[in-house]
Amino acid sequence: VETMGKQVLKKLIHATMDLEKESNIQNASVMLGLSCALAPKMSASQQSVLYRAIAPCLEDRSPTVSKRAYRVLGALCEHHSKAAAAENFQWLQDIAKSVIGGINKSSVAGKRQRLICVGHIVNGLDLQVAEQQQLFLESLGEVVLCLKEQNTRARQAAFDCLFAMGEAMSKINMLKVFFDMVSAGLAGKTPHFRSATITALSRLYYKYGKELSNDKTTTLVETVVILFQTRAREEVASLISFCKSVSTKCPSRFLLAKLLKPMVDGMLRWKDDTKNRFKSKIIFWNGLILKIK
Fold it and tell me: What residues contact 94, with CB distance under 8 A and at least 6 apart?
C-alpha cells in the first residue's frame, strides 16, 4: 500500500497542477478514485501530501473531479480523525479549519460534503482536551448556520452533524454544557443566525429534553421566549417550533404547567398575525396543549 500510495500521489499531484487540460481532468479523476480506496491505509505523511493534493480539486469546475475530491476528504476524516486527534492534532486542526472556513463559499453539494467531514472530525475528537474542545466550539457556529440551508440534503447533513456533536457531548456527561454552547447563538447579530440557533435548540430539546434537569429546562425556555419580542418573522416561526418541542417532550406535566405562561405570553404577541400563518400555528399549538393536559 505504501508503494502504491506513493505512485498514486505522484500522478495525482502532476494531474492537478493544470486542471484546464481535458487529459489532466481525466487523469485526476482516476487518481482520486484510487486515492479514495487507499486513503484508509495511508501513513500520516502520505495523508498530509494527499490533503494538499486534493485541496485545489475541491471547488474545481469539473463536477467529477470535485465530487471525487470530497470523497477522498471524507475518507481521510472518517478513518484518520481519531488517530490524528491523539498523535497529529495540528494536521487535523488545519483540515478542520479549512473545511469549516470554506462552507459558506462552497456549492450546495460542497456544503453537504464538508458537513459530513465535520461530523467525522467531531467523532474523532477527545472533548476533555481543551484545544480539541475549542475546535469543536469553532465548528459549532457554522453547523448551526447551515440548519437554515434551502437545499434539503445539505440541511439534513447539518442536522446529522449537530446530533453527532450532541452524542459526543452526551457521552462525556456534558450535555448541559452543549446546550449552553448552542444557546450562546441567541445573542447573534442577525435574525437569520438567531433563528438557526432556535431551530438547533428545538431539535436538540426534542431529542435530549428528558435528560435535562427541570432547572435547566426552565432557564432554557425563559431565555428563548424573550425573543418573541423581536420583529423578525423568521425568528418567530422558529420560536413556535421550539415551543412545540418543549410541549411534547417536557418530562414533567408539573414543569410544563410552569412553563406555559412565558410561552403563551410570547405567542400572544403574534396572535393576530395572518401574513405568515402564525395565527393558525398558534391555534394548533393550543390544541396540542389541550391534548397533553
Answer: none
CA separation for the pair 287, 229 (Å, rounded): 23
232 contacts 191 by C-beta, under 8 angstroms: yes
Calculate the alpha carbon distances from 74 to 128, 193, 205 in Å. Answer: 24, 27, 29
Q: List alpha helices for the chain, DSSP H.
A: 2-16, 22-38, 44-54, 63-87, 89-101, 108-124, 130-145, 152-171, 175-183, 191-208, 214-225, 233-249, 253-268, 278-292
| Whole-structure pTM value | 0.88
In angstroms, the Cα distances linking 42 to 115, 153, 172, 196 are 23, 30, 30, 38
The span from the first CA to the last CA of the chain, in angstroms, equals 64
Question: Which pLDDT tens digit goes with each residue over 155-187?
Answer: 999 999 999 999 999 999 999 999 999 999 999
Give residue for cell 410541549.
247
3-state SS of 83-122 is HHHHHCHHHHHHHHHHHHHCCCCCCHHHHHHHHHHHHHHH
pLDDT tens, position by position, 182-239: 999 999 999 999 999 999 999 999 999 999 999 999 999 999 999 998 878 889 889 9
Cα dist. 220→65, 115, 198, 259, 262 in Å? 45, 27, 11, 10, 12
